[in-house]
Amino acid sequence: MTDSVFLMVNGERREVHAAPGKPLLTVLRNDLGLNGPKFGCGLGECGACTVLLDGKAARSCVVRVETAAACASVVTLEGLSSDGSDPVQKAFIKAQAAQCGYCLNGMVMTVKAFLDAVPDPDEAALKEALRYNLCRCGTHVEIMKAACIAAG
Ligand code: FES
């Protein structure tokens, strides 16, 4: 059985029909066609699915759709900018941080949330913020470089 659920996603009010408990990641990708958030582990452990819920980084694979509906805003990678002009996205492009690129959605969204909360962090703080975002290719050096560029 599905319920009608309203979400404020990337500044637009969207209606979806979802069973209670359905993961937000599934709703974003399968119902709303937003493929920025990636499915990695599905267990809240890798960070590939990270979105912003009321400005805070959240792992959408373990957020229930009704929890997201109670938030004032859900922002996915697509909501940062449509053309890569967001400063954090630009930093990741400048640093050529991607190898396969699968983890980068989560890296970008995590850095975005962190810099919004801590505008002038040192490298150690950035490293700590990204500690639980996993990259299987091992491009952590480039990812850190991107985070440092984004931090200014
Ligand atoms: Fe959500 Fe890994 S897919 S944390």
TrEMBL record:
Pfam families: Fer2, Fer2_2. Residues 3-80 form the 2Fe-2S ferredoxin-type domain. GO terms for molecular function: 2 iron, 2 sulfur cluster binding; metal ion binding; oxidoreductase activity. The keyword Phosphoprotein does not apply. This is (2Fe-2S)-binding protein. Keywords: 2Fe-2S, Iron, Iron-sulfur, Metal-binding, Oxidoreductase.
